[in-house]
């Protein structure tokens, strides 16, 4: 588990309290099916940032056991939830690029019964995605007081090709103050 602030489900859901039922129910379904999972995406990032942001979906990082492979290469979800209460639900698989965060999936801290990815897992996933909003999320997490040395060490170990980007985001935060 990462040092510093522990994730809190209520904190993650501040901008979208109507999502709470969906997050809890989908997490329960995944747990009952024996599927490793952790809240990620904007809601996962909100657990570590002072100024949360809204989102239109719920993202769970899921283990390989979330998918069933059939003859001919056909793949189905074991818990086929793509929407709950009108909210899109994404089950994010451990692609080859995301294998570097599998340990984070295995040891995700739990808040009110829902696993939420650790801060370093969230940051690494967002750096790997590299979209503008993902990088802004990393800046907001850093600006909220994240342990920079912990993040730097985690990124250097899991995704060293993202270390320079993380340092640039640190600099952006420092220049914004």
What does this structure look like?
43% of the residues lie in helices and 16% in strands. The chain has helices spanning 9-12, 20-32, 41-46, 102-106, 119-129, 132-143, 148-158, 163-176, and strands at 37-40, 57-62, 67-69, 75-77, 83-84, 87-93, 110-111, 114-115. The strands form three sheets. A four-stranded mixed β-sheet has the order 1-2-6-5. Strands 3-4 form a two-stranded antiparallel sheet. The model has no long low-confidence stretch (mean pLDDT 95).
Task: Give the strand order, joined by hyphens, for the main sheet.
Answer: 1-2-6-5
- Give the number of domains: 1
Helix content, binned percent: 40-55%
Question: What portion of residues belong to β-strands?
Answer: 15-25%
Mean pLDDT: 95
What kind of sheet is the major sheet?
4 strands, mixed
Distance between the termini: 29 Å
Low-confidence segments: none
How are helices and strands ordered from N to C?
HHEHEEEEEHEEHHHH
Number of strands: 8
Radius of gyration: 16 Å
Total helical elements: 8
What's the shape? globular
Class computed from helices, strands and strand pairing: alpha+beta
């Amino acid at each position: 588990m990462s040092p510093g602030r522990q994730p809190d489900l209520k904190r993650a859901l501040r901008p979208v309290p109507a999502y709470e039922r969906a997050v809890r129910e989908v997490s329960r379904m995944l747990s009952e099916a024996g599927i490793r999972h952790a809240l990620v995406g904007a809601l996962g990032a909100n657990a570590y940032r002072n100024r949360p942001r809204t989102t239109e979906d719920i993202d769970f990082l899921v283990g390989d056991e979330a998918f069933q492979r059939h003859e001919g290469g056909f793949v189905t979800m074991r818990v086929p939830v793509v929407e709950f209460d009108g909210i899109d639900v994404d089950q994010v698989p451990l692609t080859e690029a995301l294998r570097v965060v599998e340990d984070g999936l295995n040891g995700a801290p739990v808040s009110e019964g829902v696993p939420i990815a650790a801060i370093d897992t969230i940051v690494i996933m967002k750096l790997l995605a590299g979209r503008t909003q993902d990088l802004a999320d990393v800046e907001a997490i850093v600006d909220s007081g994240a342990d920079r040395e912990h993040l730097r060490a985690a990124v250097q170990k899991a995704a060293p090709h993202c270390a320079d980007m993380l340092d640039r985001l640190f600099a952006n935060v420092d220049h914004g103050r």
